[in-house]
Amino acid sequence: MPDTRRSSLRARAVVALVACAPAALAACAHLRAHASPDAACRRVGDAPLSAGTFTAPMRGDFVLTMVATSGPQSGQSVDGRLTLVPQDSALQAVERATQPLRGAATIALETVGAERLGDLAATAPDAPGVAVYEQRAADGTPTVIVRFGNESNARGPQAFDAGHTTGYVRQITPDGFAGGWSSSAGSVFPPRHAEGYFCAVRAPLP
Asked: Which terminus in the chain has less CB density within 10 A, N or C?
């Protein structure tokens, strides 16, 4: 992502987030919702992460932009805030994967047609509002996803057809990370599904 575009995204999103306290999210949603995709956030493609990629650069505070490319809000985009911290060592092991990071987000998922599975701001380590999951293949190639909503991140079995909003990380740099996302309401009729891409750019220090 070019520096000029990254600076533009940071400046616009930070102004909106300062103007809107989390408690006033619904009233101020128009400041962060865009009728057309945000030019500063570009799709990075579907190539897998390289074997030497690690999740450590994903720690910190980020300006999160989500863009919808399919679903009821296709063409819309929204900015929000995301914070990720290391998960407690005793809770990092999960079924067939690890959970190296957990955190919270403030973003109007509904603007891009994504499902809200519980509280995005939850801070309980065993059911965080946002969690990062990592699997590594035998050759060291990682698969990294970000799951939104404390209901999706609660410990214990999840229904096969449960709803979800999930980010698929395709790029990690010191300045942030990016990839695609998908969301489903689960086994409901009529079905609700949406997809798109996202960018998480490291927020400037206060």
From this structure: C
pTM: 0.80
The answer to whether 10 and 64 have CB atoms below 8 angstroms apart is: no
Domain around 104: 3-202
Say how far apart CA 147 and CA 103 lie, in whole Å: 10
Cα(7)–Cα(26) distance, rounded to whole angstroms? 26
Residue-wise pLDDT for 63-112, tens only, equals: 999 999 999 999 999 999 999 999 999 999 998 899 999 999 999 999 99
| Unique residue bearing structure tokens 């300006």 | 63
Q: What's the domain count of the chain? A: 1
Residue with tokens 């206060």: 206
Q: How far is Cα 200 from Cα 72, in angstroms, rounded to an integer?
A: 23
